[in-house]
Amino acid sequence: MSMEYIENKTTICIVNYKTEELTRLCLRAIRKYTKVPYEVVVIDNDSGDASLDYLRSLKWIRLIERPDEMKQSGSWAHGTALDKGLESCTTEFYMAMHSDTFVHKEGWLGELLENMTDDMACTGGGKLDLKPYWQVFLKRITDYKALMRKIKGAKRNDFYIRTICALYRTEILMKEELRFAMNVNDGVTCGKQLYYNLIDRNYKTKQISEWVMAKWIYHLAHATMVLNPEFTVRNKTEKKCKKKISEIMNLPIVKEILNDDSLDK
After folding, report:
1. Domains in the chain: how many in total?
2. pTM of the model
3. pLDDT tens, 51-104?
């Protein structure tokens, strides 16, 4: 017997690991700018620090603690946490969102939901690393591999909808037994194999450009890894991320949200 999911409602799943201020900003921004029906589930991967204390204090979220979570693989821990949230999802839509993603525009979720027509399995964007449009255009017209894939009629390309801020139809993921941690132990990024399986099974997906996604969200790529010394990142990545964190956290809109404790109640 198939499960009846709550129509027109979204479960937003966020994975937390020792990023108190970023998680606080992520959650408060959702509460400030989301006007359509939703609920938030936060999966904590054995943080054991102030970020977990903060999450325990919130009455408006559903917190799932994983006190014995392994930390050997960031992708594995993140993917299995998103799977944990999916398994408990009772709503028509399921959103994977990173704790270093912050919405900054009212109506963001409503606009994403407009893309989810009845035949759509998921929608979202790829990397949110904005470059000048001319650079992206130049890369596209000189991408020989992409051209050959198109000539051969390949259904796949290098793009996949990333779990930065991705919206899925819950029933399809459950029916097809698709999970976010698929193949991550083989070096596949969390959610990538899931997306490719949807394509291979002829489900429709809708790609949203990074410029459109940027109208709704900020993303501090690699922030969790940079802020926690047990993870190793390249020096260039660390410097770039720390600079971006400083820029974002000093924005007036971000300061306003972090100073508004009423968003926790």
Report:
1. 1
2. 0.89
3. 999 999 999 999 999 987 655 567 889 999 999 999 999 999 999 999 999 999
| Sign of CA pseudo-dihedral 230, 233, 238, 241 | negative
pLDDT 10s digits, 124-182: 998 876 454 545 555 555 665 555 545 555 555 678 999 999 999 999 999 999 999 99
What are 55's two structure tokens? 């999450």
Cβ–Cβ under 8 Å, residues 201 and 157? no
Written as one letter, the residue type at 121 is A
CATH classification of the domain holding 246: 3.90.550.10
**Sign, CA torsion 203/14/182/65:** negative
- Tell me, yes or no, whether 254 lies in a domain: yes
Beta strands in 51-100 (DSSP E): 62-65, 91-98
Which of 43, 61, 41, 13 is closest to 165 using CA atoms? 13
Structure tokens at 250: 């000093």
